[in-house]
Amino acid sequence: MQQYPTGGAPYDSYAPAPAAASRPAAQRLPGSRIRRSERQSRIKRPAAPPPISPLPLGERPLVRLPRLFAGLALYGFSLALLVRAALGANPWSVLYEGLARHTALSFGAISAVLGVLVLLLWVPLRQRPTFGTLANIVVLACSSDLGLWLLPAEVGTAGRVGLLVAGVALNALAVAVYVGARCGPGPRDGLMTGLAARTGRSLRAVRTGIELTVLALGWLLGGGVGPGTVLYALAVGPLTQLALPWCAYRSTAERAPARAAATA
Question: Rounded to whole angstroms, how far apart are CA atoms 74 and 82?
Fold first, then answer.
């Protein structure tokens, strides 16, 4: 029987040990055969990706809707933290500022126009707006304004750094919570989840790629960039990827195989 070492490199890099028949008789021990189930348990396998595709709104709405609204409220408040930190806007805001320098449209109008254009990008990705997409627009506007009203406009350097770090971390957690509710992502996060599904790449890689692309376009157009912009672009993707497995809702049908495997 082939035996596999435990620990160390990923499971697909393990090489089988020499067969027992090729070893000297003196090295063979009676009863040393490892049962198949035990051998398989020693092989490290990658964790299954968390489910993120939208579910029908009737699937346990009393569980999922509070997650959706909580995640969106936290997301809007995280934007207020980043604005009050004044150490560089997030990449999408940098793009809005850059476009505002070259058009007669206001910051808010540019945000709306780009939101519609992003929704058009959903078409080839086979994404459709849902209740969560519409809630994204309303709740984000209210929670971000409330956060700006509650947070002080002037803080010291240490306070600004603290607001920046808290804003980035809270933003990533909020994305994981409301995307994990599976009521449908907002326009920009729908682009992220659609590209991840179509390309097979991780949310971390897709999110980071989108943020860096938007940041580069905004900077070329004259948008304001600071250390907070770079930190947000590089950190929000990995942090969202880390938090999503803990926040993703799994339907009854998706939980059944896991329970069966646990009791086997």
Answer: 12
**In 69-115, which ranges are E strands?**
none
Neighbours of 5 (CB within 10 A): 12
Where exactly are the structural domains of the chain? 65-248
Which positions ≥6 away from 209 have C-beta within 8 Å?
A: none
Residue 259 tokens read as 């329970």
95-101's contacts with Cβ under 8 Å and 24+ in sequence apart are: 95/214, 95/215, 95/217, 95/218, 95/221, 95/223, 96/218, 96/223, 97/218, 97/222, 97/223, 97/224, 98/217, 98/218, 98/219, 98/220, 98/221, 98/222, 98/223, 99/218, 99/221, 101/221, 101/222, 101/223
Predicted TM-score (pTM) of the model is 0.67
- Give residue-wise pLDDT tens across range 146-198: 887 898 988 888 999 999 999 999 999 998 999 889 888 788 878 887 888 88
Distance between CA 71 and CA 57 in Å, rounded? 17
At 140 the three-state DSSP class reads helix
Is residue 72 within 8 Å of residue 136, measured between CB atoms?
yes
